[in-house]
Structure prediction request, 264 residues.
Amino acid sequence: NFANAKRIVRTESNYILSRATFENYETMGVEQYEFLATLDYKTSEICRELDKKVFYVKDKQVGVNCNPMHPNCRSTTIPYFSDMQGSRAARGVDGKTYSVDRNMSYRDWYNSLSEEEKKQMEILAKMDKNKVKDKEQYEKIKGVLGKNAPKNLEEFQKVKYTDNNRWGLFKSYKKSIEIGEISPLASFNLYENVSKEIDEKLIGISTVNGINVVGRSNHFVSRVIGSTEERRNGIDIDKIFDALTNKETNILELKKFKNGTSQK
Prediction:
């Protein structure tokens, strides 16, 4: 497929460039070279560790101490001289390129980032690594949600990786539509807002008969929204609050089932 072809072309191009570079080193009498990785979130662990390390040209081994180290490798080498000065490029989590001191290694650069930037880098790396599988998953989700699916793969990955709670909520939303608990016309935005309102208004209250509300099921979110397919009207959350806390509420006896208890 296209992804495999792209990987092969990129890796082979890196290999050809590396070979030509070392031929030039030998022609010019360069004795030592410096391994240079790319300062961004895509760089592999092995290239991160090799960054700024110096080797003798006579000892170079592709995949050991010179590029390409692996498929899709973007690393390169430069001649090494002990008095080298200047700067090198780095790319932030916002995609913008900026300059840092040329003597700064990948580890030095990474350690200079804020905790938030490091967190964002990990998310971006995971998104990039899983892009092929995520695209397959996204296409399946579009088949279920139609126009209510995230508008593109990038938006889908943001939902999946930037917030574990949001991803769990999205999966519950998708399942609720699949089994007909809510209408396919109900958007994830609606599902998310209703869930948030439930958590804000109902979680933590005490019912009129002294029960502390500590959580809610995904099915409950669906019941609040309602479904034309199941001929269930939605329920106003403020009315639910009133039913749970009003002294006039009619409370039926507690019923026990194999999987728990229920009270209406």
